[in-house]
């Protein structure tokens, strides 16, 4: 005889989730059937028998049969039938399992949240809390699940149903799951997506920011708390709800940080104060400030404060989480910034006191507050003086260098090597001068109250390009030295060919590098650094390597060239003077220039790497600024003034300009010619008296 039970199989839990466990209970049989203890149980799923295994454990106890599925998969969905048998009697119970994922459950809850009322809200919040806490990993590792959960909280906030302590506990448990460290990567993805929608136009439609929506929903829910006092402590969020009859003082301490809040009694008295302190809201909110910079760090707890009374003075003492950071800013989350995407603003908040361990702020309004601190906080007057005085000296030196080159330009055409050397020096000086000019323009742009991003991009482009041109022209000079030393001096490539090669290397290679850098980093808005001077980004895209690597590689190549050239020149000198003295002089000048400038530039940008790896070291910053700002002065000294023939020509020009008669000029020229011959003899140069006894126009520079 077969009986079909009117009672369905019992499932624990009622909602069966993917990856979780479930226990299915069959029986007990009705007492009037008098089944003896010899009964057995058979289980089927969709008509197929279920044998016992590691994932499906069968058991019988107290007249009931149980099937425990230790890890539910989608294949466990379907129609279950349990048959209890004893001799000729069989009792059948059945039931259906529908396996649900966390995402499916959240989507169902999202739809349900649009039709809640005061009766259904408690049960709904209990299920939402259970879903998010039980399947927290599935929730927080999926931006889509986080977005759905935030939308549910928004709908709850819009219900305007009073929220008591029990309901608020469930809300805070849900919000706490969303702020955990495991959710940080998902929030980074959501915030990056929001940042791409930041528009500079005021007539654009409001943008969406999930992180702002979460905080705004919690603020709105706080506004509808019931009018009584209570405290709620969850692992990630603390709430203190108080009827304010006297000054409010509270400390909220988590495992590794804390925040203290002091609020004077509100005007009119008996107002309610609600304070929420978040252990890890910095995982949710980006450190984006009013200048759209994200270099700073949220270095204290985020605190949400609401009062239904008038409060215009609130004090916070934040325990800093990282005491190596500096330059604290007292800020609040301004939901209207960046077309309603939101960001940190400091209006109405002032810094009262700052120590290595705590920062005290005072604000004249209520909302959500925290502190932003910089990963480096060097603010040295000496550094500013060194930079700007040094740049001024550098630019003046470069202008003098170019003037000198212009004055002697006609005297350098008789010797190809000399001519090419001076072409290199002119372009090195010109590149650095233009780079310094754009540096000043970039500093003016970055110092403005509102940074013009396109202008800053343009300044960075030209600074990058001309700094690279400086190094590639140094490389061209080194290769010229190597070419003229290794090859026969009076043969080989023509002057025109060498000029084409020099300009292609000097300006073509930097242009290619700069364009590639922009193409890779600009679409991600990671071309320039987010704060400070207009310059290549380091923290996000490492775009600065597009300058540092080529520069340091050129330094190494030039040092290797110098070693080869010195070896070759020493061998030739020991074997006898096989080249013209003028040619040898030019090569010695090039070698000496590279010998001084290459280590100098290498040291300068070696310190530049140090400023990136250790940005809070004031000594490295000052040293880098000193060497970097005086590059022009060293180019003038080692590239131009230390060349005795350049000095000689300058002296001749100077003397000629002060004499009015031809005879006087000739006399001075003869005297200087004798002096030059005497100096050349001391230096080991073998030149005939005829080479220097004529007009000064025959000097090779």
Instruction: State the name of the first-level CATH class of the largest domain.
Output: Mainly Beta
Task: Specify the CATH architecture of the largest domain.
Answer: Sandwich
Q: Oligomer, anyone?
A: single chain
Annotation, overall tally of beta strands: 22
Number of discrete helical segments: 19
Q: Indicate the radius of gyration in whole angstroms.
A: 40 Å
Quick structural summary:
Helix content is 48%, strand content 18%. By secondary structure, the protein is of the alpha+beta class.
Describe this structure in words.
Residues 228-379 form the GAIN-B domain. The chain has 701 residues and is of the alpha+beta class. It has 4 domains: 2-97, Immunoglobulins (Immunoglobulin-like, Sandwich); 104-198 and 205-374, Chondroitinase Ac, Chain A, domain 3, CATH 2.60.220.50; 381-642, Rhopdopsin 7-helix transmembrane proteins, CATH 1.20.1070; 643-693 and 697-701. Helices cover 48% and strands 18% of the residues. The chain contains 19 helices and 22 strands. Strands 10, 11, 14, 15, 16, 18, 19 and 22 form an 8-stranded antiparallel beta sheet that branches. Strand 20 and strand 21 (358-363) form a beta hairpin. The longest helix has 34 residues, at 453-486. Mean pLDDT is 81; it is low at 574-579 and 661-701.
